[in-house]
């Protein structure tokens, strides 16, 4: 129900960010503590989120590429890579440089 009401009763004591679920707050706290409980059995890399470990396993240690481009024959291990690639077909450049205002397909940090 909180999803529909917008209620977020769980608040981070470190930064004030609010969450609808206690588990999401617990996961968020790892950003502050540096805890990385999920470890890759292939390379030993550690992650704060289970999903991040699964994504790493698929991208780095697997040939699985379930995300297919509808415009060409390219396949990708994750949806964000497919999204970046799809911009080559549309010429979409949604990211603007804060210094020169030039637009880019990919966000450069």
TrEMBL record:
Compartments it resides in: Nucleus
PROSITE patterns: ZINC_FINGER_C2H2_1, ZINC_FINGER_C2H2_2
Source species, domain of life: Eukaryota
UniProt feature coiled coil, ranges: none
InterPro entries: Znf_C2H2_sf, Znf_C2H2_type, ZnFinger_BTB_dom_contain
Keywords: DNA-binding, Metal-binding, Nucleus, Repeat, Transcription, Transcription regulation, Zinc, Zinc-finger
Protein name stated in the entry: Zinc finger protein
Lineage: Eukaryota, Metazoa, Ecdysozoa, Nematoda, Chromadorea
